Amino acid sequence: MDISYGGATTAAAEAQGLDEAGKTVSFDELQPGDLIFYSFTSNGRYKNISHVAVYVGNGKVVEALNESLGVVYRDVASTGKIVVIGRP
Prior knowledge:
Elements: H1 11-20, E1 35-38, E2 51-57, E3 60-66, E4 70-75, E5 82-86
Antiparallel strand pairs: 1-2, 1-5, 2-3, 3-4
């Protein structure tokens, strides 16, 4: 199943497509299914995005954290690192 927006192949490209299409929301408007895009370091991609998580409600996300932990269910990470929230 392809869930990318406009054929995006990276989190940064997905966020850019959603942003340019006006499909973004504020943190206060989060709903289950929204995509939360994070920037942790400068990487030259759109808004330096390097990670995406899926909001599932009640302050929780599902995300692929790293190779050792795999996919996790946890609290939304630091709001200071969130650069785009998209609603596909």
